[in-house]
């Protein structure tokens, strides 16, 4: 069941609200940036995401195919969400579930986690090793 969550960066300059069903699944990826950041993400549709504040302090980083816009607060450095486009999803938001301010431990523990082999561009399959993710 979709709930409205509020998310933010560490200093609070970037804030948003997003409709997510964490029970529908989250994911972790083994691509180079997700591994370094130990990302734990959930996907949201554009109509379920609303930036409340912080557009002026957002920095952006892109690499490889440049299809994903990795956004971060230029004040505190926290990357609380990204957005991108894919053939399967169209435009989407990748929400860092650890940056959701009003989740509780039970919701996070119950959220299924899929593992994605982004390192080899196999977004529909898990990597051989997931223990470090």
How would you briefly describe this protein structure?
The protein has 133 residues and is mainly beta.
Which helices and strands occur, and which strands form pairs?
Blueprint: E1 3-8, E2 15-20, E3 26-29, H1 32-37, E4 41-44, E5 49-53, E6 58-61, E7 68-73, E8 81-86, E9 90-96, H2 105-110, E10 113-116
Parallel strand pairs: 3-10
Antiparallel strand pairs: 1-2, 2-5, 4-9, 6-7, 7-8, 8-9
Can you offer a commentary on this structure?
With 133 residues, the protein is mostly beta strands. It has 2 helices and 10 strands, in the order βββαββββββαβ. It has helices at residues 32-37, 105-110, and strands at residues 3-8, 15-20, 26-29, 41-44, 49-53, 58-61, 68-73, 81-86, 90-96, 113-116.
Q: Any idea what the radius of gyration is?
A: 14 Å
The 3D shape can be described as globular
Helix content: under 10%
Low-confidence stretches: none
User: Biggest sheet, strands in spatial order?
Assistant: 4-9-8-7-6
Order of helices and strands: EEEHEEEEEEHE
Total DSSP helices: 2
Features:
single chain; 133 residues; mainly beta; 10 strands
